[in-house]
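## Example record

The block below lists the input lines for one assembly entry, exactly as stored, with component labels intact.
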Amino acid sequence: MTATTAPNTAILLVGHPNVGKSVLFHRLTGAYVNVSNYPGTTVEVTRASARFDREAVLLDTPGVLALPSRSDDERATMRALLNEETRCLVQVGDAKNLRRTLTLTALLAELGVPMVLALNMHDEAAARGVTVDIPALAEELGIPVLATVATGGEGIGELTRSLGQARRPGALLHYDADSEADIARVDEAIGRLAPHPHLAARGLAILYLGGDAEVAAWLEAQAGGKFPEIKALRQAASHRTANKVSAVLARERSEAADTLATSVIQRAARSSPLLAQRVGQYVVHPLWGIPILLGVLYVVYEFVGVFGATTLVGLMEKDLFEGILNPAFTDFVTAAVDVPWIVELLVGQYGLWTMGMTYALALILPIVTTFFFAFGVLEDSGYLPRLSVIANRLFALIGLNGRAVLPMVLGLGCVTMATLTTRILHSPRERMITILLLALAIPCSAQLGVVLGMLGSVSFTAVLIWTLAMVGVLLLVGFLASRLIPGRRIPLVTELPPMRMPILGNVLKKTAGRLKWYLVEVIPLFLLGTFIMFVLDKTGALPGIIKVGEPLVTGWLGLPPEASAAFVMGFLRRDFGATGLFAMAHALSPIQAVVGMITITLFIPCFASLMMMVKEQGVKIALAMVAVIVPFAFLIGGLFNLLLHAVWS
Amino acid sequence: MTPKPEIRKAARLPLAFIPPGQEVRLAGFGDEIDPLQREQLTAYGLAESRPLKVLQQRPMTVILADEVELALEHAVARHIWVEKDLGEVPA
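Predicted structure tokens for the full assembly:
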């Protein structure tokens, strides 16, 4: 074992999902990344300078269920391991599940990189009667091992100090003789044909034999024409054994971890489950799960739909903007500016202030603030992964499993973020279906608030019709997509993290971070959208568009001609379009309000999420989705217009 | 040296058939579970001879393995074989 003398390079935080890497990252860097109580919150590597050493760079990697890498987030972590000049690895482990933590340690130890092991959530382990003999474990592994509680800041100082004592751990196991012979052959070939600048060839050999696609790609790029020699060794290894090589290696690591964990763990007998465990079980209970879900939805509706979209919007729009700010700003601009078109650009019907800023700050901001707060509480409580258990049967109808509920619920916050989070899904087919449904039928928080605010003031029936329309479309399109897109459904297997009392500070930080992100994205787009509307109005194009759209908007959808403007705005952001309809709510009948909201909700998502669709699925598939979504939105809107006139007039 | 007491074991049963509240040992995975899912289960800590407790069976099978709660669809739990310990064989 060698002490670390590496130059100033990256420190990687690596570990299983939901063990607290991102909280630790925040503690060590001051940089805030989204932190939640469910696996898969981090889907990309985040980097920031360390607080304790401004020249050191810390990397927060996505959680790995296991290595060799299989899923997108595991591959992202593997790429970081392969490509970063790593000074040391900080493995963040769950203290109450040491066996699983050590299974990953057994593989990381083979990479030949100095390591520190932070056993996090030590408080939860103690509450469950689990005690780890830390000094004994440190001695066995030959690396610093620390107990931390990242959320409470415990053990962070010790962790920082221990980074200087990071060591290359000794191997936790020797595999069976045949496997060792295979590893030695590949190890030798890698050392000769594709040596890695800082990772041990033996570690890469184990990963490659285990079927890691990222390692295979790296070796192929390094070895070039000699790569078939390495590949032939893996083929020979797989021909030798009836069992899959990766399964044999994983099982032996698991056994070694089990042996070591058993020797350093003490478990106190516990007479009854913890309160958190009991609450967690009630939430997914076959009888109580649904009433609890309805209760949660009701509270969220009251907080976001009533308090946010009605009370706060009323205060902001009527009292602050229309009552004080807009008249004052209009008076100021009229007095200060002599050019009439500039006055109109700033404070006219399509004014940057009177429309763009008023929409963004008075109508949308209160709604998204309350939504992000409520969502943060749900995230940190551990409720969302349990929702995947309740929703699994429903999602099976559309070829998905309950795991897809996470991006779907995240989509209610922001479809762009949610599209990125589809990476937690296990197959390309699941990702494609989920991205399509997100783009089509999941309204983001801003739009959801506008819908609730507008239809809530019409009647509860209006809200119910809109909700049933969205759920119906979701199920119908999901059902058709699952039959048209090739591939099979993967049954759900998921971890249920402990239920926890949300920490107000984290929820507020998260809400503030999301609001900042939202405002930075939304205000420029709202201003751009307003400017486009102003130009279209001034050049006479808007009346032309309204006239062209009349057969569709007035005839088929039964909306007033001016609603065409809202759909033009909707091309930039759905919520901008919805806000346009909201602003003309007084001129709409109940049926027009429902039809307008159904159509605009199904309309293409915002520009940012369209770009994210392109990033995740490629230009062709993203454009194909848009080509389906736009006519489909008008088709469904028109059908509801006909249906509602038939039954609700 | 005293020989280790022999543990009597019952027949292997699918995990999906075990009533909530019972503790069992994992006996193996059926061939119906594909290799990727098998790796996933192993990564969650499910390994032969490991004890686990069934917490509920509906709407999904929920188990406690070490301190980790896992939810498994019945399509998976039906192909995970477990056995109940029946205590020590009488001398």
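The longest helix of chain B spans residues 35-43. Chain B has a mean pLDDT of 84.
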